[in-house]
Amino acid sequence: MQELDEQINEVLDILIENDALIGHELRSMLKNFKEEKVAVGYSFGKLCYLYYEAFTDCLNEDIYKVAAAIELLILSFDIIDDLQDKDSDYSWTKTPDLSLNVALAMLVMASRTIRETSFEHKNTAIQILEDYALRSINGQQLDLLNTCRDEQSYIQMIEQKSGSLSAMACLIGEVLATGGTSSEVEEYGKYIGIIQQIKNDIQSLKTWGPKNDLLNKRYSLPIIYLLSQENDVSKSVINYYNDDMDAFLDNNATENELTNGGAIRYAITMKNVYKFKALNILENVTINKLGEDYLKRLMK
Fold it and tell me: What's one Pfam family the UniProt record gives for this protein (predicted)?
């Protein structure tokens, strides 16, 4: 998979360097922001490639451009998300006004890059990109409103916010290869996004600092579980979330309750529910062994 990351990265460099409508300052920031994400890898671009490869008999080299275009959109969303949440150390948070222009440029470049490929079904791919991007934005809006305070509404929110983007990548790969899309690939893509979001929710609670969801009075599956328990810790957390002036949050007791009281185990169980759903779908898609191993790693 490292070779695929390198190919997507190389195409990203070419796209950024060769865009004649981007000025020097904007191009420089694009390059820098892209470099900060290299170490994370290009998981969405790889999803697109793997599903394209699974359904095609003849590889079109333009698929690397499409994978890079998807990564431009994903990075633009990451930048906007970080600017909204104000909980990131990436360089784009230091110059939010200028960084917003970079994110907007990436959005335009993403759809234009796909439009300029040689794929027969590129217009359908662009339609998928736009539709699922809007679904994700709607999910992000719900997340920022912080009103999804039960399991069902929270799952629906992360399905839109995160699941839409991973589903988008898979479906674009499929449609470029076949001209159509399937509900199985869409469902699988959504499950991958949900799994990743739940993993992020769990990780957030492992560090008792400025990025901790509970300290920021955010809702996530383990926190929703904790708040549903009728004990002293849950009552103190409820008071903290309700801005009770007399609320006392015992960090050690709260951490212990999250870890040993079932909240984290509940979130892991929910993650595994979607993992098994995704694995069932994956069994019916012919993907090479390397790709299959990568997709299974995403679900761990």
Answer: polyprenyl_synt
